[in-house]
Amino acid sequence: MAGWPPNERKIVKLCEYAAKNPVRIPKIAKYLEERCYKELQVEHIKFINIVWERFTRLAAKAKATKIERDDARRKETESLEWERIAKRKAEKYRVAA
Questions:
Q1: CA distances from residue 49 to 42, 61, 74, 81 in whole angstroms, order as listed
Q2: What is the pLDDT of residue 5?
Q3: Residue 21's closest CA among 87, 65, 57, 67?
Q4: Which of 20, 38, 54, 56 lies at a 20 to 30 A Cα distance from 81?
Q5: Per-residue pLDDT, 1
Q6: Mean pLDDT by 10 residues, the chain (97 residues)
Q7: What does the alpha-carbon distance between residue 46 and residue 88 come to, in Å, rounded to a whole number?
Q8: What are the distances in angstroms from CA 47 to CA 18, 32, 62?
């Protein structure tokens, strides 16, 4: 068992769940931290490696999700700003005519 790699499917599922429910990321991280301490106490190094892999992937996924969310907000803000500029120009030309 010591040579087995972490279960990739479970790690991917956890990351997908976290991406769909970003509010739960702190709770998931806390659970992983507690699990790591528990496994350290009983010296289950393999489980610590699995927990570390999950935590690392979760952090990377959370960062990627935050970047995507920030990009979407920035694009939305830019779009709204361009709409406001277009409205001001249209009003300016209506008043002048």
A1: 14, 18, 37, 48
A2: 59
A3: 65
A4: 20
A5: 42
A6: 61 79 84 82 78 78 76 84 85 69
A7: 63
A8: 20, 11, 22
Q: Are 54 and 13 in contact (CB under 8 A)?
A: no
Q: Please report the pLDDT score of residue 63 as a whole number.
A: 76
- Domain ranges for the chain: 8-70
Locate 20 and state its tokens: 């769909």
pLDDT of residue 97: 55
Whole-angstrom Cα distance, residue 15 to residue 27?
A: 13
48 Cβ contact list (under 8 Å, min separation 6): 36, 39, 40
In this prediction, residue 96 carries a pLDDT of: 58
Which tokens sit at 38?
Answer: 């528990």
Q: What is the DSSP letter of 23?
A: G
Tabulate helix, strand, coil % of the chain (nearest 5): 90, 0, 10
At residue 6, what are phi and psi to the nearest 5 degrees?
-60, 150
